[in-house]
Amino acid sequence: MECPKCSSDFEQLQTPFGDVERCVDCKGLWIDRCEVESMKPLADVIDNGDEEVGKAFNAVDRISCPVCPNNKLLRLVDPQQPHIWFESCPTCKGRFYDAGEFKDLATLDLSDFFKKFGLEERV
Description:
Layout: E1 10-15, E2 18-23, E3 29-31, H1 36-39, H2 43-46, H3 51-58, E4 74-77, E5 85-88, E6 95-97, H4 101-106, H5 110-116
Antiparallel strand pairs: 1-2, 2-3, 3-6, 4-5, 5-6
């Protein structure tokens, strides 16, 4: 499969909870919808890309599904963490997370409460 963001190849990561595809270049992740929750404990291992690279690729949002190439991915926002934008296929329900997004999604903490309301934690 080919990465919908940078057109590089995906490498397949085999985990005890299923397989995940990770781009060899931008380190974005393709995860089947049914495996998103089960993969969260492995977020630090599978989402090892540079967050700054992920933020740059997050601006690329008109992309096609790597599984269903005739389908455009829809940009969605996580309801618990609205600062996380990811892309999802309307047909196969697979999801693409830019580098750093899945690791962020897997960790819900107090700072997410502040982000939800557009506030930043003050020290």
